Amino acid sequence: MDQGLFIALIGIFLSTALAGAGSAIGVSIAGQAGTGVLSEKPELFGRVLILQALPGTQGIYGFLMSILLLQKVGLLGGAAVPVDTVMGWRYFAAAMPIAIVGLISAIYQGKAAAGAIMMTSKRPNMSASGMTMTALVETYAILALLVSILLYTSL
Questions:
Q1: Burial of 136 (0-12, 13-18, 19+ CB in 10 A)
Q2: Of 63, 87, 111, 116, whose CB neighbour count within 10 A is largest?
Q3: Cα-Cα-Cα-Cα dihedral of 132, 67, 88, 105, to 10°?
Q4: Which one is the CATH code of 3-153: 1.10.10.10, 3.40.50.10710, 3.40.50.700, 1.20.120.610?
Q5: Residue 2's CB: how many other CB atoms inside 10 A?
Q6: Rounded to whole angstroms, what are the CA distances from 120 to 45, 57, 65?
Q7: What are 54-100's pLDDT values in tens digits?
Q8: What burial class does residue 78 get, using C-beta atoms within 10 Å of its C-beta: 0-12 exposed, 13-18 middle, 19+ buried?
């Protein structure tokens, strides 16, 4: 395997691994709050589930970026294309916005979701407000995904 392809694969790995780890942590933080609420108010399951799921999207974004990059280097449905070192670093750089922002935003979105879950437990009619506040954190993951895709399309 040439050095450029190896560098690209590290970026691809990090795109999925970091964004996915952030989502797992974020969903877990929200899930901890959710299980406590549901033990007292099981009728709130649907609302709590939506709030818990929100931090999971960053992992999907990282996975999507990895699929796009794997296709670009020819490792999906074919043989790897030659990738020089400079191009390997470019692929790596394209993966980093969603990898890093996905990790961080998912964790903080999980914290926001936990707060929204606690608010929903006390005032169920405010769950939509909690969802909106939690979704605002997602904006930065979407922007990072957009930057990663723009970098990808420029390669």
A1: exposed
A2: 116
A3: 20
A4: 1.20.120.610
A5: 13
A6: 11, 21, 34
A7: 999 999 999 999 999 999 999 987 788 899 999 999 999 999 999 99
A8: exposed
**Would you state the structure tokens that stand for residue 7, as one six-digit string?**
């560098």
Give me 88's structure tokens. 């390997």
> Distances from the Cα of 31 to the Cαs of 1, 102, 116, 138, in angstroms?
42, 19, 12, 18
Query: How far is 95 from 48, CA to CA, in rounded Å?
Result: 32
Distances (CA, A) of 106 to 14, 110, 111: 15, 6, 9
**Residue 100: closest CA among 20, 154, 25, 27:** 20
Q: Which residues, including other chains, have CB under 8 Å from residue 34's CB and lie 6 or more apart?
A: 48, 49, 51, 52, 114, 117
